[in-house]
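User: Fold this, then the next.

Assistant: Folding the first:
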Amino acid sequence: MPPGCTADACAVLTALARATYHARSPTPRLLAPPMPRFSANLSLLFPEVPLPERFEAAARAGFRGVEMQFPYEHDAAMLAERAGRAGVEMVVFNLPAGDWARGERGIACHPRRVEEFRMGVARALDYARKLSCKHLNCLVGIPPADADDEHVHATLLGNLRFAAEALAREGCTLLIEPLNTRTVPEFYVSSSAHAAQLVHEVAAANFKIQYDLFHMQVMEGDLAKTLESMRPLIGHVQFADVPDRHEPGTGEINFEFLFAWLDRIGYAGWVGAEYVPSKPTPDTLAWARRYFAPRPSQQRVAQAPAEAAQRQGAEQQQQ
């Protein structure tokens, strides 16, 4: 149960999300075949090539969108040029999250680092403008050991409201991502209910949840029904299999069912492949082939032998 959220309050939040879903959504439908929009997380996928080359590698594999964890070590103009050349859309990346190498996983809940957080929002928006990216994700972090929960909660709310307002002026959406506490012990937001509570408290139209199937399967399971009840609050979905965060088919999650379910409940956002490939990335994409239509150039290559055979058959008939 999230800090500050009683059992009754969490039940009310879930009921509100479910009521909003049923009020706004048409009767669930099942498309055949399901066609989510997939993005490739370039911080994890295609490690076989340098990061600037991963845009084209993702496009060749069939992805139309890409995302990153943190782009800040690279020149934004270079990244934008590479994305444009590959013909892929930059979907989302994280706000600066402190010293990652030292184990920090965000600073939004740190009472003594509010100014640093606000500077990070400004830096992220500068990259978002240059990359034409409309979604930024906030990792809230691990609270300081000496901070009381009330202070942590108030700091986080203030920072989220500040970020949501700053992003709204740029036409961007702020996301919040609950992480599992097995991978990130003591992470402050580790359940979908706590994330939903914060979305309702901040009450900004451009503030939503980044729902990661890997993290939420570890923490609470029941993925399909949670996705359905919270769909109006979800702005982005990510995935990796459990337990080892590898590609679909290496663990316990039924991705074929869940991808079809996302279509059935009317989710229209991006679905980010944020897994650690267990082998060269192209060899991990068996899950994706049914969803990726070939690009026009690939279609022409595929059609050429068939067209040649048809012409040859016609010529033989004329003879």
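Now the next one, as you asked:
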Amino acid sequence: MSLDQFVNAVTTLSSQANYAELCDHLNKSQEVLQRNPGQLDRVLDSLEPCAHSLGYLAALVARLGQVGDNEPELWNDLMGKCDNFVSVCNDDQIRFSPNSLSDLCHILTSELVKRGPAIAIRGISILVRAVRKLQVTSTSLTPVHADLAKLCLMTKCLSPALPFLDADINLICRENGQFDAVYLLLYYYYGGCIYAALKKFDRALFFFEVCVTTPTAAVSHIMLEAYKKYQLVGLLVHGDKPKSFKDNFSLPKFTSPLVGKFLKPLCSAYSELVSAYTANNQAELRAAVTKHQEVFTADNTMGLVRQVMSSQVRSSIRRLTRTFITLSLADLATRVGLSSPQEVEAELVSMIQAGSIQARISQQDGMVSFDTNPDSFSSPSMLGLLEAGVSAAICLDRQVTSMEEEMMLSPAYVKKTSGTRTEEDEETGNRAGTFNNAVSASS
């Protein structure tokens, strides 16, 4: 088959809206497209991105994977074609074969990462529009979510990913009935890294937890990296709660046993850091960091480790506010492991300004007095916070109710609960029985 025949077939089948036959034809044409990289530009010029979206997309994917690093002009031209295609492509054709657009985004992301942040930032807007094209609802997850989060993290341009990360996912968009689990893990891993960079540690902890606790028959390197950061972020979120620390920080009961069996032994440096942190001993924590500094540097987690070290001092101060009403700065410095009253005073001033504690420092006698929370919980801001929480709870309840109704009305659930066996189940059971009988006879 020549490329002219390919163009004619794409044009004819697209005009007839015969997308099933068109997809079958495109699958058979992959070898032809790969063998003729120099002529694919002519093919792209012959097809309309809007009218012949699937055919144009197949040629664009083949051409994009053949661009060399020393062809900047060709790369810029293809970037323009990708940008224009995602904007004008036919939604019906794309939804008929969503994996084709996902493949384009995966290859585009891989090429952009190789070319560095200055060029990669150009692909963010393309991926944002691609996600919108592939999403069934605003809370559905597509394979392109992971690519978008990766580019945003690499280029340190984090804001475009936040609208997607802030949406609570309740649906996974399957492509041809399948969804590669690696894109789920990468989405939550990169999302956790983005929230950690923005110091939204509660949300980051949730994302890392989802990545680590995803049901699996084998652990992956993605889960390993997420577990390392999960421990560090857990200290930043729950480190000042000694009584409930273990309950808050431990993984949920539904976590796969493989996590404890395989991941924990590979994270001994982080386990030692957690133990030193919970011992409430600044010298012990510094010793653990110094001992495993090479490991933390190789894992690119030294930034979080430094924040953990700073957090231990502040956590110790917060715990002391629940025990003492008045302390001298010198005594407070000794209790939290700082070398001088001046250092602890600087920490106190910073915490008071941030609103994390209520205290007064007397410069005259070097004493600090801890106050209870003066908020009467009757301010307009507190009322707005309460209303926002109630609205979020109502919205979540509606989503859960809707998903429960959808599940209970699904034919598969009805058959399962009623005990009805389908013809396929009967056939499967008969095959299994025949197999078992054969095994028994042979033994």
